[in-house]
Amino acid sequence: MKVLGIETSCDETAAAVVENGDTLLSNVVASSMDLHVKYGGVVPEIAARSHIEVILPVIKLALDEAKCTWDDIDAIAVTYGAGLSGSLLIGVMTARTLAIARQKPLYAINHVEAHVYANFLTKTSLLSYKMPSSQPKFPLLAIIVSGGHTQLTLFRDHFDYQLLGQTQDDAVGEAFDKVAKMLGLPYPGGPSVSKAAQKGNPNRYVLPTPKVDKYGFSYSGLKTAVLRLAQKLIGEGYDFPSIKLPERLSEAQKADIAACFQRVAVEVIADKARAAYDEFRPHSVIIAGGVAANQELRRKLTDSIPLPLEYPDLRLCTDNGAMVAALGCFKLTGQQSQADPYSLSVEPSLSM
Ligand code: KG4
Ligand code: ZN
Question: What's the whole-model pTM score?
Fold first, then answer.
């Protein structure tokens, strides 16, 4: 059974083919990231326009790479939320049209839930992908950390999950992006902050650990603490504009700030994940979303969780169509309800 997955919730136009929920046959991602860099963040109108330009070639490439024709495809899965409405719309309208024209069942996919399913991909013939050795087992604790989400979710089975807690304000990836901006580091902030952090001392400055109940998270206070620290280091007050900070901070100060921020940002995730592990004793712990690419987070989790942890390939941690197709496979075999190709609409603020 083969499913075509389509993902356009933010700035990546992505399509992939997955077989039987565990085998990655193709994974094509066209990012409009370069067009957003000069604005320091994703511009929704630019993202939507790029999706329109590349979505059909991306889908064609995904089928070609998987050596599939439309006859081989059993269903189409598409992200319908959460995300930018203009971006989601392009993927959903394309998937609806293809489902009608090619007479395929259509599955509406929750983007955040899909991130978890990147962990179910264990096989591929694509070169250079590093896959986990086995699929996670239920009950499964999912640590979902991205530009839009920071949450702990307990999956008792497919489609049977409970949100244990989530961020009350900013998502962890968003905090990485904003701290990068303060330090004058390029967008996306996650990779650039962690690169700068490699040269810094993570214990150089004291930053407050967010205090939130149980499994909740909060990153806006930490972000503000970074701003205040940077203002203090250059001898300025609270009214000094953050946009002028990069030119006044030395490279060494930037590296130390990045390292201290990263330490606190990932430590709290590892601590809460450990508490959830102790309470629920899951059989697997997985990490999903763009921030799963963070090596320091991986290191901390490996230290705090007493289970062998495996991670998806970096290309399957950030937004991609493969995770959407993988979840689509499980929806198809699990006889979950299909979406109506004549009426499926987007849900920009869909939650889990
Ligand atoms: O899952 P994703 O591709 O998109 C969303 O659904 O949000 O995650 C993107 C986020 C961005 O905020 C980016 O800065 C962050 O993931 N990210 C990282 C790293 N790579 C990407 N954050 C920390 N460390 C990284 N290495
Ligand atoms: Zn995502």
Answer: 0.94
36 C-alpha to ligand 1 centroid (Å): 15
Residues 6+ apart with CB under 8 A from 214: 164, 165, 272, 275
Contact 10, 33 (CB under 8 A): no
- Taking each helix axis from N to C end, the angle separating 189-197 and 172-183, rounded to the nearest 10 degrees, works out to 70
Report domain 144-304's class: alpha beta
Kindly report the protein residue whose alpha carbon is nearest to atom 7 of ligand 1.
Answer: 147
Given this model, what pLDDT does residue 220 score? 95
The predicted model gives 160-187 an average pLDDT of 96
Q: Which of 11, 119, 176, 313 to mutate to test the pocket of ligand 1 (most atoms within 8 A of CB)?
A: 176
Atom 8 of ligand 1 has which residue's CA nearest to it? 290
Q: Which residues contact 23 (CB under 8 A, 6 or more apart)?
A: 121, 122, 123, 124
What fold characterizes domain 2-132+313-333?
Answer: Nucleotidyltransferase; domain 5 (3.30.420)
pLDDT surpassing 90 at residue 187: no
